[in-house]
Amino acid sequence: MTTVTDMSPFAALRARFPGTARRAHLDVASRSLIPASSLDIAQAHLLERVNGVIDKDRYFGLVETVRQSFARLVNADPIEIAMTKNVSEGLNIVAASIDWRPGDEVILCSDIEHPNNLYTWRNQERLGVVVRDLPSPDGLFPLQAALDRLGEGSRVRVVTVSATSFKPGLRTDLHALGRACRAAGAHLVVDAAQAAGITHLDVEAMGIDALAASTQKGLCSLYGMGLLYVRRAFAESLTPPYLARFGVTIAATHEADYDKGPIHYKAGAQRFDVGNYNFLASALVADTLSMLLACGTPAIDRHVTALATSLADGLTERGCGVVRPAGAIMANMVCLRIPGGGPASAELQRHLQEHRVQAAVRRDLLRFSIHAYNDRSDIDRAVAVTAQWHERQSRV
């Protein structure tokens, strides 16, 4: 009998996710499966509340464990990590903390971004900020256009981009963009909603100044919790848009203590912590971060990218419309452009669900997205079921 300890690292990880036995869950870009261990952790936490026996110091310790673990995941210092509710809040904290001047510019690409990395910056237009929306004719971030604008001596304060795009799920060369931002005195702000825990991210090597993540996708946990990295020097140049006890440094023995003296913001990104934390979500993501760190994001990245490449190759061989433009850097996603647009994509999605494959429709595309708990059997099923539908449609 094969035990979990006898398995390969990814087979052992897959065994922790019972949902993988029910269907090929290729939809981490919407939300992840969560491991079976989450049930015991959540029950233990809730029982403490039911029985009125809690140790809040231990809860705060859990939060710090998460802060330290996420810092390790992205190669940051824990002092550079703030706790948030979601990616949107993290991005808004950064945008609202900058001392904007009329005429300052933000570079982005609405063709490939989730709306929450657009409205955040559009909201600064009321302060005279110019949002320069670069077009993408092929589904890739227009890197050369961004580099050209940065090199023109313009007033670009921020370049914002997703590490892996909302659609069609491709990477941007963050190393090149980070170097150009540094040279131009601009800040690189990254939406890591589709990348944290899946793609290997190194904020130092990539020159990232701020990065927002949430826990319900690649970190394999609940909605309602996020993490924000802000490079210490950048964070300490920012004024928090709102402030609470956990964002200041005072001589205190209790979280409710107050000091009437001058306000001293906490060092680094911790000045952005506000109010009590999501302790249940912290307990759960502490567990999943430990699991992901044990595998290592370089290995996870290789695993998911290889599976995505196999999926894209298999679907292409069967005549399906894979969105994979020249020069694309594959990540963990594969998108299909279906003749007939959104309605046809929704029909294919229903067909996949009937055959135990979970995927998503985003705008006019059908999107598959892969995590460490997926394996080749999921890819083979997705290719076979999609090809079946495609061949049937071709005969109509």
Please give a structural write-up:
39% of the residues lie in helices and 13% in strands. With 396 residues, the protein is an alpha/beta fold. The chain folds into two domains: 117 residues, Aspartate Aminotransferase, domain 1 (Alpha-Beta Complex), CATH 3.90.1150.10; 252 residues, Type I PLP-dependent aspartate aminotransferase-like (Major domain) (Aspartate Aminotransferase, domain 2), CATH 3.40.640.10. α6 packs parallel to α7 and α11 packs parallel to α13. It is globular. The model has no long low-confidence stretch (mean pLDDT 95).
Keywords:
lyase activity, alpha/beta, 13% strand, 3-stranded antiparallel β-sheet, pyridoxal phosphate, Aspartate Aminotransferase, domain 2, 396 residues, lyase, 7-stranded mixed β-sheet, PyrdxlP-dep_Trfase_major, 2 domains, PyrdxlP-dep_Trfase_small
Q: Write the CATH homologous superfamily of the largest domain.
A: Type I PLP-dependent aspartate aminotransferase-like (Major domain)
Please give the radius of gyration in angstroms.
Answer: 22 Å
Tell me the CATH architecture of the largest domain.
Answer: 3-Layer(aba) Sandwich
CATH topology of the largest domain, by name, is Aspartate Aminotransferase, domain 2
**Structural class by secondary-structure content:** alpha/beta
CATH structural class of the largest domain: Alpha Beta
Order of helices and strands: HEHHEHEHEHEHEHEEHHHEHEEEH
Strand content: 5-15%
Distance between the termini: 48 Å
Q: How many domains in all? A: 2
Helix content: 25-40%
Number of E-state strands: 12
What is the 3D shape? globular
Strand order of the largest sheet: 2-8-7-6-5-3-4
Give the overall pLDDT as a whole number. Answer: 95
Question: Given the structure, what is the number of helices?
Answer: 13
